[in-house]
Amino acid sequence: MSTTPAILVAGGAGYIGAQTCKALAAAGYLPVTLDNLSTGYAAAVKWGPLEQGDLRDRDRVQALVAKYDIKAALHFAAYSLVGESVRDPAKYYDNNVGAATAFASALIGAGVGALVFSSTAAVYGTPSISPIPEDHRTVPINPYGASKLAFEGALRWLGEAHPFAWTALRYFNAAGADPDGEVGESHDPETHLIPNLCKAVLGTGPALTVFGQDYDTPDGTPIRDYIHVVDLAEAHVLAIRRLLAGGDSGVFNVGTGEGCSVMQILGAAERVLGKPVPYSVGPRRAGDPPSLVADSSRLKAAFGWKPVRSDLDSIIADAARWQAERTY
Ligand SMILES: NC(=O)c1ccc[n+]([C@@H]2O[C@H](COP(=O)([O-])OP(=O)(O)OC[C@H]3O[C@@H](n4cnc5c(N)ncnc54)[C@H](O)[C@@H]3O)[C@@H](O)[C@H]2O)c1
Fold first, then answer.
1. pLDDT in tens, 116-154
2. Residue ranges covered by each domain of the chain
3. Which one of 179, 217, 223, 264 is at 20 to 30 Å from 32 when CA atoms are compared?
4. For atom 21 of ligand 1, which residue has the closest CA?
5. What's the gap in Å between 51 CA and the centre of ligand 1?
6. CB under 6 Å to ligand 1: residues?
7. What is the pLDDT of residues 293-306, one digit of tens each?
């Protein structure tokens, strides 16, 4: 049997999952992707096998655990469009809670006792303090955030009932692309600011809409904490390593602790890309809090993690290169 420990990566054909597969392979693991390709790309799966299938397929999950001798799993496979979740909450509960719980249960049944889950800052709703620590109250303001919080709850109870350790990583805004151009962000529709501004500058997408300039922030636009996808991927490798070494379950924010407004991002993009971003100001988007900035001190202390590529210039330059040269 191979000495390379195999990790099952549900959603490994997506933006963050694919980048994490690259990081896992570099760290000496075999990433085995389970993905139904509903929003992902077969072309993004480059560092291990692609097993096309659904999270809900218990027999398939258990057969994969046996086939590859899976040691731990990562769960990225969810729907994550906030607006769509408001229009169709059942779709979000079905996939982000129902399918996710079926997946965790199948893993436990097959003897896999470690799972890292992609949670989100959306679990906090509209926070009362900034930066936000993990023990801040969690009152999501849309079904997407609520579905992620519900699955965190399921993990907690599964961990009580079974020999099962889990880590929920609450990401703030994932951004950037692989510096080598091997994988990147290709959501359809794309709702994220940085890929959309890159497309606007490149002329491959429409002028950007800034959703609201009347927030209670210094320049009136929302403030977010942008984390480079490479730094986020590294947090997953550390989380897997920690669980495999017997680390306990828990919730961790993943962000830089630095907030940037939309207008600050546009200014940085103009500087990095050498061209102004064409944009207009539209109304606020429902469910957008004024500011979301992470207190990641718990993650730093437990994992020895620190962001190394999350400066705005690297994020924007890597994202723009991907949008100009993207292969899928
Ligand atoms: N992108 C962000 O800024 C951000 C922020 C916070 C949290 N997250 C969370 O991180 C995770 C990954 O985000 P992403 O941007 O890479 O998304 P993505 O849509 O690019 O990737 C999700 C992948 O999961 C697959 N998938 C979905 N449902 C499935 C199912 N039932 N069975 C098998 N495969 C399935 C999709 O085909 C896709 O490849 C998501 O859970 C998302 O909610 C993302």
1. 999 999 999 999 999 999 999 999 999 999 999 999 999
2. 6-176+226-255, 193-224+257-299+307-321
3. 179
4. 14
5. 16
6. 10-11, 13-17, 35-40, 54-55, 76-78, 80, 95, 99, 118, 120, 171, 173-174, 187
7. 999 999 999 999 99
**Could you tell me the distance, in angstroms and rounded to a whole number, from the CA of residue 98 to the centre of ligand 1?**
15
- For the whole model, what pTM was predicted? 0.98
Kindly tell me if the per-residue pLDDT of 1 is higher than 60. no
Q: How far is the CA of 119 from the centre of ligand 1 (A)?
A: 10
Query: Which of 19, 33, 57, 80 has most ligand 1 atoms within 8 Å of CB, for mutation?
Result: 80
The catalytic residue among 68, 92, 124, 144 is 144
For the stretch 56-83, pLDDT in tens is: 999 999 999 999 999 999 999 999 999 9
Instruction: Name the residue with the closest Cα to ligand 1, atom 1.
Output: 174
Establish whether 215 is a catalytic residue. no
Task: State the distance from the centre of ligand 1 to the C-alpha of 39, rounded, in angstroms.
Answer: 8
Domain 193-224+257-299+307-321 is found in CATH 3.40.50.2000: no
Q: What is the 3-state secondary structure (H, E, C) of the chain?
A: CCCCCEEEEECCCCHHHHHHHHHHHHCCCEEEEEECCCCCCHHHCCCCCEEECCCCCHHHHHHHHHHHCEEEEEECCCCCCHHHHHHCHHHHHHHHHHHHHHHHHHHHHCCCCEEEEEEEHHHHCCCCCCCECCCCCCCCCCHHHHHHHHHHHHHHHHHHHCCCEEEEEEECEEECCCCCCCCCCCCCCCCCHHHHHHHHHHCCCCCEEEECCCCCCCCCCCEECEEEHHHHHHHHHHHHHHHHCCCCCEEEEECCCCCEEHHHHHHHHHHHHCCCCCEEEECCCCCCCCEECECCHHHHHHHCCCCCCCCHHHHHHHHHHHHHHCCC
The answer as to CATH 3.40.50.720 being correct for domain 6-176+226-255 is: yes
